[in-house]
Amino acid sequence: MITMHKLYEKSGNEQFVTELTKWIFHERGHLKAVNVRHHKVGETDEPAMYRIKDDLEFYIEIYEWSGKSWEPYVANDVQVQFYMMSPYVLKTLSTDDKGLYHTTFKVPDVYGVFQFKVEYQRLGYASLSLSKQVSSFGNTNAVSALTSQLNNLPM
Asked: Nearest CA to 118 among 67, 76, 82?
């Protein structure tokens, strides 16, 4: 009787499949963003709009699921965009190595409705995508000024 049973040495496939399964079922590499906030430098309240050339601060906390709890996610390549149809400001965020990311920048000299956007995609991690809309104060002023001028035209 001939048996066709042959033992093979362990390969890396077992570890690969284990890690892949953890990733698929969000047991590793799953990111979440919390406490997304922005405000003028030196203030703490989040305004509905900014004036052109205001200095502002942007904060975001990012955590990674470890399989048991949410742990601070630490990376040096997380960026925020201040976006209106295309990015006007693109800044790499600084981290405190405890999951909090931060940057400061000046509101561009452009009227319109802007969004803060974070699009973070890294191999081995679930992608993180979020946006938050704000207006520049000048946009409202420009509309009011134009309306006022149109109302004062002779008929």
From this structure: 82
DSSP string, 35-51: EEEEEETT--S--SEE-
43 residue type, one letter: E
The continuous run of DSSP H or E covering 131 comes out as strand 128-136
Homologous superfamily assigned to 26-150: Macroglobulin (MG2) domain (2.60.40.1930)
Summarised one tens digit per residue, pLDDT across range 52-97 is 889 999 999 999 988 889 999 999 999 999 988 888 999 999 999 9
Q: Where are the domains of the chain?
A: 26-150
What single string gives the DSSP state of each residue in 18-36? HHHHHHHTTSSS-EEEEEE
Q: Are 11 and 107 in contact (CB under 8 A)?
A: no
Q: What is the CA radius of gyration of the chain?
A: 24
Listing DSSP states for 57-125 in one string gives EEEEEEEEE-SSSEEE---S--EEEEEESEEEEEEEPEE-SSSEEEEEEEPPS--SEEEEEEEE--TTS
